[in-house]
Design goal:
The complex is a heterodimer of chains A (289) and B (371). Chain A has helices spanning 2-34, 53-59, 62-95, 100-112, 115-125, 132-139, 151-179, 184-191, 196-224, 228-233, 245-254, 259-288. Chain A has 289 residues and is mainly α. Chain A has a domain at 61-257: MetI-like fold (Orthogonal Bundle), CATH 1.10.3720.10. Helices cover 24% and strands 35% of the residues of chain B. In chain B, β9 and β10 (215-220) form a beta hairpin. The chains are: A mainly alpha (289), B alpha+beta (371). At the A-B interface, α8 and α9 of A face β6 and α3 of B. The structure holds adenosine-5'-triphosphate and magnesium ion. Residues 13, 20, 22, 40, 42-48, 86 of chain B line the site of adenosine-5'-triphosphate. Chain A: The chain crosses the membrane at residues 12-33, 68-93, 102-122, 128-148, 155-180, 200-222, 262-281. Chain A: Belongs to the binding-protein-dependent transport system permease family.
Chain lengths: 289, 371
């Protein structure tokens, strides 16, 4: 009986599994294999095995390390700021008595927009001469800002756009966590003499810890592989100011045509993300307990 | 130390047509150092009243005063009251020790003092071995003792205890009862104690406040409430088994009050209860405590009632009989000494102590004063 159930289960999932195998598993295996060869798109072929040569070269390459560093900065900035904003908004919404669903709807709007559209939209809004933001600044006498043209500014502009796009994800997850918290400890704390901040610090934060960890990890995993916004808004520029790792790998493969090295870098990225996913999985199991 | 005063206090849940008056215009003054018991059936508003005093529930109408100061809008943190919640409300992420220490730490007490207080209270409550556990690792009764401990380590102006012993076994409960009484005697702090337990109600408090449907029915010293219930509700609620309530008809003849109860008659001198004469010729409810029924006549003031035994509960020090008046009349209970050979279905003549009778008006359910 149980065996037949299991066979039936496999049968049902077979088409999906085959498809996933073709579009996910196969490219991963293929990239892993390619990363050990000197494989360029000019001379495709598996005749020059280089072992871990591609990895060593990537690790010693200033541009690659720069991209990794920029990505780390980006992830920390985006996730930290989103977390703070998300927490504040979630706390406020959790106290809201009416209109919660309206706020929800408004908040979810950015999340529903395709990243490419987000990038195009913001590129227009922030256009140095034609954009509405600089025009608005002009009306109050502030000189136009070169949002995407100046290296330091471009990085923070991309960070801001990503925050605008993704912050509601934080809000929604944290709000779900907050509304699931028991109310009794708060009453006890009020009678014990705790102020609103002390209640947040001693009750909310510890009780929310598992939810916070999961939320942060999910956002970090997604932030590490940010690609679309960069492609649309800056192409990694100006210079290499916003050259996030995914975009860097893309260029290495399809501009420099050095597929072997790009694959090695992709595998390294994959290992980092897989490690974080494992942590996420462990954290999620703790939430369930 | 604090006196607590409620002036026409109400708590209304919801609004419009669905509004529920969980507490309805309550007037009560709990004196400084008093041990007040809230007693009443489930849903009568005991917890709601307590939570209003604590500041966790807004006062919809009326005034709440602590030490003569209006506190309707004062934050619970500033009221400095310690509460034991009916559902414990422990901090789930803190050990037992930290649960108890939390309120003290917030007040900036020194670690050493916190430690010694916790040790003392933990010993009293028998939870020393549990200090490093989390609430989830405790049994219901252990959690309840921790909740009690969290209140006791504080030195608040008043303790608000919402059924703090309800989940303990009989032995532990009686130990804790004694501890609380002792504690009240040594600290002299005002206490309000909500309970369902008759023994707690009768033995612990200086006064009992009996509630029903969001209203206070009677407030008084335990013996007084027991001896002189103001209506059939209090008579039927206090003590187990409660006062027997029998439908009767009252007449006055030849200087005597005559109560006719389903064909039987109890007579007593009019002079002993002149006030009852005003209800002559009317239906009344006769109240008779189970312990005021005896197997043999007691002195001159007794009247016989013929009954049939329905059940026999031998409790050890005493036996509770459930009987029917006559052969199959109204049910009543009698509390008799343990020795005795009672058979179910047998007839039994009981003797009521007529000096202990109560009368109630069936229309208003209020007690009819004897003088
Ligand atoms: N948040 C609320 N919303 C609506 N009604 C409520 C709320 N809290 C309590 N009530 C109602 O108020 C009434 C009094 O409740 P309360 O908890 O004070 O009863 P209680 O006397 O403590 O009962 P118990 O002995 O069962 O604990 C009940 O009828 C209850 O249904
Ligand atoms: Mg209650």
């Amino acid at each position: 009986m149980e065996r037949r159930d299991r066979r039936f289960g496999w049968m049902l999932s077979a088409p999906g599994l085959l498809l996933l195998g073709a579009v996910v598993l196969f490219p991963i295996v293929w990239a892993g294999l390619t990363s050990f060869f000197d494989y360029t798109l000019l001379m495709p072929g598996y005749d020059s095995f280089v072992g871990i040569g591609n990895y060593r070269m990537a690790a010693g390459q200033g541009e690659f390390l720069h991209s990794a560093w920029i990505t780390l900065l980006f992830v920390v900035a985006v996730v930290a700021i989103q977390f703070v904003i998300g927490m504040v908004v979630a706390l406020a919404l959790n106290d809201a008595r009416r209109g919660k669903s309206v706020y929800y709807l408004i908040l979810l709007c950015p999340l529903l927009i395709n990243p490419v559209v987000v990038g195009l939209m913001w590129r227009m809004i922030l256009h140095p001469t034609l954009g509405i933001v600089n025009w608005l600044l002009g009306t109050v006498g502030i000189a136009p800002v070169n949002w995407l043209g100046a290296p330091d500014m471009a990085f923070w502009t991309v960070v801001l756009v990503d925050i605008w796009h993704q912050v509601s994800f934080m809000v929604v997850l944290l709000l779900a966590g907050l509304s699931a918290l028991p109310t009794e400890p708060y009453e006890a704390a009020r009678c014990d003499g705790a102020t609103a901040f002390q209640r947040f610090w001693h009750i909310t934060l510890p009780l929310m810890r598992p939810v916070i960890i999961v939320t942060l990890l999910i956002r970090m995993i997604f932030a590490i592989k940010t690609y679309d916004i960069i492609y649309i808004m800056t192409r990694g520029g100006p210079g290499v100011a916003t050259d996030l790792i995914s975009y860097f790998i893309y260029r290495r493969a399809f501009v420099s045509l050095d597929l072997g090295q790009a694959c090695a870098m992709a595998v390294m990225l994959l290992v980092v993300i897989a490690g974080m996913t494992a942590m996420l999985w462990r954290a999620m199991r703790q939430v369930g307990e | 130390m604090a006196s607590i005063e409620l002036r026409s206090v109400s708590r209304i849940f919801g609004a419009g047509a669905q509004a529920i008056r969980a507490v309805d215009r309550i007037d009560l003054r709990v004196e400084d150092g008093e041990f007040m018991i809230f007693l009443g059936p489930s849903g009568c508003g005991k917890s709601t009243t307590l939570r209003m005093i604590a500041g966790l529930e807004p006062v919809s109408e009326g005034e709440l005063l602590i030490d003569g100061v209006r506190v309707n809008d004062i934050d619970p943190a500033e009221r400095d009251l310690a509460i034991v919640f009916q559902n414990y409300a422990l901090y789930p992420h803190m050990s037992v020790r930290k649960n108890m220490a939390f309120g003290l730490k917030l007040r900036g007490m020194a670690e050493a003092e916190i430690g010694s207080r916790i040790a003392r209270v933990a010993e009293t409550l028998g939870v020393e071995a549990l200090l490093d556990r989390r609430p989830a690792q405790l049994s219901g009764g252990q959690r309840q003792r921790v909740a009690l401990g969290r209140a006791l380590v504080r030195e608040p102006r008043a303790f608000l205890l919402d059924e703090p012993l309800s989940n303990l076994d009989a032995k532990l409960r009686s130990v804790m009862r004694t501890e609380l009484i002792k504690l009240h005697r040594t600290l002299g702090t005002t206490m309000i104690h909500v309970t369902h337990d008759q023994v707690e109600a009768m033995t612990m408090g200086t006064r009992i406040c009996i509630m029903r449907g969001g209203e206070i029915v009677q407030v008084g010293r335990p013996q007084d409430v027991y001896r002189e219930p103001v209506d059939t509700f209090v008579a039927g609620f206090l003590a187990t088994p409660p006062m027997n309530l029998l439908p009767a008809r009252l007449d006055v003849a030849d200087g005597a009050l005559r109560l006719r109860i389903e064909g039987q008659e109890i007579a007593l001198p009019l002079a002993s209860r002149p006030g009852w004469a005003r209800h002559a010729g009317r239906d009344v409810i006769l109240g008779l405590r189970p312990e005021d029924l005896h197997e043999a006549p007691v002195g001159a003031a007794t009247a016989a009632l013929d009954c049939t035994i329905e059940t026999v509960e031998a409790l050890g020090p005493e036996t509770i009989l459930t009987l029917r008046l006559g052969r199959d009349g109204t049910e009543l209970a009698a509390r008799l000494p343990p020795e005795g050979d009672w058979r179910i279905g047998a007839a039994l003549r009981l003797h009521a102590d007529t000096s202990k009778l109560h009368l109630f008006d069936p229309e208003t359910t209020r007690s009819i004063p004897g003088n």
